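User: We ran a pulldown and think these components assemble together. Before we commit to crystallization trials, I'd like a predicted model of the whole complex to look at. Sequences follow.
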Amino acid sequence: MTTTVRCETTTLADEEMQRLRELAAQLRVDSVRASTAAGSGHPSSSLSAADLMAVLMARHLRYDWDNPDSPLNDHLIFSKGHASPLLYSMFKAAGVISDEELMNGYRRFGNWLQGHPTPALPWVDVATGSLGQGLPIAVGVALAAQCLDQLPLHLWVLCGDSEMAEGSMWEAIDKAGYYRLRNLTAIVDVNRLGQRGPTELEWDMDAYRRRFEAFDWHAVVIDGHDLHAIDEAYRQVRGIDRPTAILARTIKGKGLPQVENEASWHGKALPPDLAEKAVAELGGVRNLRVRGPLPEPGTPAGAATAGGQVTLPTYKKGDKVATRKAFGDALVALGARTDVVVLDAEVGNSTHTLDFAEKYPDRFFQMFIAEQQMVAAAVGLQVRGYRPWAATFAAFFTRAHDFIRMAAVSQADIYLAGSHVGVEIGPDGPSQMGLEDISMMRAILGSTVLYPSDAVSCAALVTQMVDREGVNYIRTTRGSYPVLYDNGESFPVGGSKQVRGSDSDDVALLGAGVTLHNCLAAADLLADAGIRARVLDLYSVKPIDREAVREAARATGGRVIVVEDHYPEGGLGEAVLSALSEQAVPVTHLAVRTLPASGNPDELLKAAGIDAIAIAETARSVAGR
Amino acid sequence: MTTTVRCETTTLADEEMQRLRELAAQLRVDSVRASTAAGSGHPSSSLSAADLMAVLMARHLRYDWDNPDSPLNDHLIFSKGHASPLLYSMFKAAGVISDEELMNGYRRFGNWLQGHPTPALPWVDVATGSLGQGLPIAVGVALAAQCLDQLPLHLWVLCGDSEMAEGSMWEAIDKAGYYRLRNLTAIVDVNRLGQRGPTELEWDMDAYRRRFEAFDWHAVVIDGHDLHAIDEAYRQVRGIDRPTAILARTIKGKGLPQVENEASWHGKALPPDLAEKAVAELGGVRNLRVRGPLPEPGTPAGAATAGGQVTLPTYKKGDKVATRKAFGDALVALGARTDVVVLDAEVGNSTHTLDFAEKYPDRFFQMFIAEQQMVAAAVGLQVRGYRPWAATFAAFFTRAHDFIRMAAVSQADIYLAGSHVGVEIGPDGPSQMGLEDISMMRAILGSTVLYPSDAVSCAALVTQMVDREGVNYIRTTRGSYPVLYDNGESFPVGGSKQVRGSDSDDVALLGAGVTLHNCLAAADLLADAGIRARVLDLYSVKPIDREAVREAARATGGRVIVVEDHYPEGGLGEAVLSALSEQAVPVTHLAVRTLPASGNPDELLKAAGIDAIAIAETARSVAGR
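Assistant: Here's a predicted model for the assembly, 1250 residues in total across the polymer chains.
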């Protein structure tokens, strides 16, 4: 059974209806014109949602267009980012971009009106275009607004129907239901057609409704071209104690008879002659300027600013402490800052984020086993000024790779911690071993990748990370290893530590994390054989300490060995090779090169050829002895 | 409202009940003993499902334990792979491993009874342990069995309740409903407790039921410790025209009063004294040998063997053809082999998999926009001997990274094609640009990574890929570029082509895909300036043609420039650096180093510094002129 909002008695005056009709027509006309001028884009996917967006921007979106950074504004996220012609047409209607810019800027090199929205535009919170991401990110924004800032603002998310096939959407729908995010409305533009034909559910509106309701949402089905029904649906959402899905049955290409409901028109700009005809049919170019209500006054209850004194945890040199534990300690210390929030994917007792949860439960959000949603929520929380940390096993961040990639496009500032790395974890076996995480994180544009070997450096790096921009990643180790450094030592990002060495070293051993400890043990073995080893702690994998690496190569006559508990591609070894790329230095690279299995850490490090004995043997060979 | 199967009149004779009770007790006892002997593992998560698995293996799983490779067998997949003690205890009960091996092998180095199941064991189809993967993979197996092989076998998937938070599970549930996989049963072990505390839904069985039903499954709620109810639920599933979810309310640690329903016992082996007491309470060690029914006789209707003559498409040298188009052509050619199947994530008109769909609709499966499910289905299809190809935009394979990673642990043979790579795609902007895919795919253990520059080499590589083992990836380009090679030329995986050069070259330009064309154009510019450039087509990124790269370095006196339309980390450049790591050769590396935006391809290649002019300028500088 389908519940449809029917407006038996209209609440919109004729004049207002006329304004909305005109606005919707303008959004259609401009969507067609902009994409035709660009020669590419998605007019048909814009036209299906034009009525939905016209009513929203004119009557329900509480937004101060002159002050897009105001924390009081509603948020509008186009999860279906390919409908950018519609979004940018709304910006023209709001008067924040000109018609000329829309016509000459869309999809053009050097202009901010890109093919898919990015926060290069001040009215855009996050980059979309990889489908299935806008709603999960909105859940993070909604959590911040409802649970931390406690403001009456509302989240409006325009979703495509095709993207409802992405599991990430159901992670978001699940979490929004779980947290009863009453400030969140998903507007699903059910236009029946995906890129290459009909969607899975086509116009089975009742199926959509049952699915949302099963995840504890309020769901309402409307005709997405009935301005009254749209208005009434929007009007109701603020009074509902749960998230609302407005399931709008729409027609792709609505308004253009030759395009309407035609599968072949996905993602195609109209040719100029057809576009001209279409614009004429839609009543020609308009230059309406429409703004809706301003946000309610208020003050965020959350304090998304750095406040509070952070006191680093301290450790005793030689004590065995796991870096994952030190990470938890440092996170608790960071908790003194009220902008720090923490997200877990149901492994907080392993990653030690639960240490934070115990002390700061209000700034801790459990995402259960939903890594995509965890990272998306982090991106959403930083939209509202928080410093979100998200932690899971390093291997399981691969689940959220696309979200991390897109976070970089959003130029989001997020903080990720991956534990249980490499074969070092032992008996659990390869499914739980992070062996490609450095590669994944290094290849994120503008990222920082840190991999401390001991508790002191780990805590120091966590404290620095929180003030950095972009995607920041710290890799922590499962097992406990000796504290190497004195409390208070400095570990600048981009630096390194020479933990062993002299002015006349025979060979350089470069490691990080567990392999640094193995390098140190190898250096002891080598010393017994009269070979002097320089040992370098490359705790900063990206940016890497290029100078120290080069100096180690120079000082040892080019006898460099790099050792990592990671697959050989894209990890510490290749970072070192890149640092030395313009030098003529041979590098010997020890890494995990066969499929690991279960065993104890020593057995597995030995089998991978990255234990102290393997390192020492390699060094002897490199040193020619 | 909860539907509960109630067995008012028992259909199980007392004797059979006694056998099942004994078997369940044995599985419990052995799960405790094995994990205690190993000193780690998940006994509590095994005990909750012991009754479910006892009834399944004794009465419903149609499986020839002496012939695990039989295509007629039912499949049993532990999506909750951490319950491996239970699975291995079942293997003991079936008589395929000994009690001694279970006690001394579990989680031990060199033994196949790893912490999480892998197909090193002949009774295991795929590796699990990254939660949320077993059910999506099972959908692929079920598609093969139902739609291709058309056999009456059944898929039984033991799922955890915690993993129901993974979006990938809902992608699987959605697709199983869409394809009406009546041969698929998900047994959800709702034991209420996750790793660090209660699950989202705890024992809200009705919520689970509503969710499955909303996705068009048959769902039934049972007491997961009531042997009659379990038996009756299993008995019914084969008669239902849809996938069935058996939602079993269970108690974690069931059978051990001190462990039952206690959050603190997740993932912990019992200490030996407690284990001894527990075993005694459960009635002591048993050595029951229990096997259930054998599979029905039959013959697979699908022919998962290489048959049919593949005739490569041909192209005219100099014609402009996109490699994504050549990929589609080659896939159609491969279609002559009846083991070739193709999966799409709703972009088949862009990746050109729809060309295959038109000719071979029965071997084409639309997964809609669900990249995790697409890759999981590929893994499932290869379980039954097919050669599955899955294609989407290269950037969107990041969505499935964890599934690709686990495919390597499964030692699965799958074939992935990523289109729309690099800034070359132009106006759509960075959300659609594959700029980290080479890095991701290189770091998959045992992977093959290919990146052809023209149509002839692309088709030749596709044809070779299909007979390779492991995870195979081909990267195709959006735009059309000249055909460079003669039809019939050979492009061995691991090889390269010198497309320009002599015995006395001044500089070596190494490229692949679009940058190879830019290298060729740069070589023309350099020739005008009297600089002789050798140009190498590194179409095989992994394995790379180490010898050719080294020879190019040697021949040019170490003046090597590598150019890629990809971020600098983990891609072609670092592959070249690794190939040269033990030589002392400087390498100049041109790659995409800033966030791209929209524009036309030429503008974006220029802005990234990887167009012909930038390459030529760099070469002049490297050559010192």
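Residues 14-38 of chain B form the longest helix (25 residues). That may be worth checking against your pulldown data before setting up trials.

User: Thanks, that helps.
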